[in-house]
Amino acid sequence: MAYSCSHPSIMEAGLLFCLLVNFWIATSAGNFYQDFYVTWGHDKANTYNNGEALNLNQYLFGKVEMQLKLVPGNSAGTVTAYYLSSQGQNHDEIDFEFLGNVTGEPYILHTNVFSQGKGNREQQFYLWFDPTADFHTYSILWNPNRIIFSVDGIPIREFKNLESNGVPFPKNQPMCLYSSLWNADDWATRGGLVKIDWTKAPFTASYRNFNINACIWNNGASSCGSDWSNNPWLWEELDYARQGQTKWVQDNYMIYDYCKDTKRFPQSLPNECYVQKYS
């Protein structure tokens, strides 16, 4: 799957998909029958009202993975996003965002977690490979106890459920899976100093091998029910070896951690920064 952008107004549109649904973007707009093609998972995409509306699944907890190949060349100012999000003002959200850069400079992998409308929990990384040269797997594990971001099976970040310490955790609002390629040159590259070079358009990011194992939310109930024994990812955690992998990534490739930003939080760091350090 690819989504190409050649003009700023197009770039704001984005792409929405949930569970086993894969879309090809057409040039016209206004009708799902004409402009979208479901290549697999047809039973999860329900089109109605003569193609004017489309229903997709929502999930409460899941393990999602996607292979991406990012925009090559001069991608400065673009952001390729792949994330889970609920709806409404006080929404929950779990973000993978890939911040483009000028040719020869590394991409920045930007991660964030929102709960009850509050975000500001960014961690950023350089990658140890060229993400534009080939496909790599980016996965999100979201269960009642933790969120784990992984790249090619290597966990790079863990966000624990610390509600007992007064830290909100996304566990009550079902979310859909979204992806978009959009114009963020007001902040994405060197804080907005480098703008998009539209002579390099179209900008194309490629996706493949989407896989999700999740609890589907329907009419206020979870498909996992009360017996979660058949879904071991609901209890998954980082063992000692995987904790070592996370430490390796964060020691060598992390370039920003909100829990170390005393200029941004001059009075006191967010509570979870103290709790997670010792938990």
Automatic annotation (TrEMBL):
Its main location: secreted. One of its GO terms (cellular component) is apoplast. One of its GO terms (molecular function) is xyloglucan:xyloglucosyl transferase activity. SUPFAM superfamilies: Concanavalin A-like lectins/glucanases. It is found in: Secreted, Cell wall; Secreted, Extracellular space, Apoplast. It is an enzyme of class 2 (transferase). Pfam families: Glyco_hydro_16 (PF00722), XET_C (PF06955). Contains at least one intrachain disulfide bond essential for its enzymatic activity. Keywords: Apoplast, Cell wall, Cell wall biogenesis/degradation, Disulfide bond, Glycoprotein, Glycosidase, Hydrolase, Secreted, Signal, Transferase. Glycans are attached at residue 101. It comes from the Eukaryota. Residues 1-29 form the signal peptide. PROSITE patterns: GH16_1 (PS01034), GH16_2 (PS51762). The active site is at 93 (nucleophile), 97 (proton donor). Its EC number is 2.4.1.207. Residues 26-207 form the GH16 domain. GO terms for biological process: cell wall biogenesis; cell wall organization; xyloglucan metabolic process. Belongs to the glycosyl hydrolase 16 family. Catalyzes xyloglucan endohydrolysis (XEH) and/or endotransglycosylation (XET). Cleaves and religates xyloglucan polymers, an essential constituent of the primary cell wall, and thereby participates in cell wall construction of growing tissues. This is Xyloglucan endotransglucosylase/hydrolase. It comes from Erythroxylum novogranatense.
